[in-house]
């Protein structure tokens, strides 16, 4: 259930390595990923079923969870949803052999921060891991509070309010909204959002931006984010 994986901090690192939990039932893939990420300087644990993954992730000791969707015991969607319902905001990178907007949207709706379809490039996976960990670390830095009508986005505390109601967003949803709110009233292109939110290594469908914008419209108000045909998106004035 809990195959041992050595924890090796990066050479010369003075701070503790980021801890990553891999929940993946394909044991050869899981071990391969663990070895690679350990070599990158991360502390890695591996489990192979959903119930054990939920238990370990729920302990709150991890900086990132790499979560397969098709798992025995409890699938990845349910693990993710249970963690979010319990208030855990650990970044979650979902892995799946499935493909298509429906599956991706379902993963995002349950609270996943990113989504990678098998087979994937290991280089791309590492880039996604680094991006998610970097954004989590930046969450504690000093940043302004952006107020746009009745929408308030606190980029330091990573909290969003619509009127007096707080809106819960995933890390990736927040990153997309942040790109729009810092340029409120201006058109932000899909390419610009991809560059800042998914990084240069992203090789997937650029329509992923539309999935996240749709999620933001559901959680906020549809009219807040306007699609400017052929140009991008614009955050409109709130009430």
Contiguous runs where pLDDT drops below 50 for at least 5 residues? 1-14
Average pLDDT, rounded to a whole number, is 81
Shape designation: globular
Using only C-alpha atoms, the radius of gyration works out to 18 Å
Q: List the strand order in the largest sheet.
A: 2-1-3-4-5
Share of residues in strands = 15-25%
In terms of structural class, how would the helical and strand content be classed? alpha/beta
Biggest sheet descriptor: 5 strands, parallel
Helices and strands in order:
Blueprint: E1 19-23, H1 27-39, E2 43-47, H2 50-58, E3 64-68, H3 76-85, E4 92-96, H4 101-109, E5 114-117, H5 122-138, E6 145-148, E7 151-154, E8 159-162, E9 165-167, H6 171-181, E10 187-188, H7 190-198, H8 208-219, E11 225-228, E12 232-235
What does this structure look like?
Residues 143-237 bind DNA. Pfam families: Response_reg (PF00072), Trans_reg_C (PF00486). Residues 143-237 form the OmpR/PhoB-type domain. InterPro entries: CheY-like_superfamily, OmpR/PhoB-type_DNA-bd, Sig_transdc_resp-reg_C-effctor, Sig_transdc_resp-reg_receiver, WalR-like, WH-like_DNA-bd_sf. There is one protein chain. The protein is an alpha/beta fold. It is built from 8 helices and 12 strands. The chain is 38% helix and 21% strand. The longest helix is centred in the middle third of the chain and has 17 residues, at 122-138.
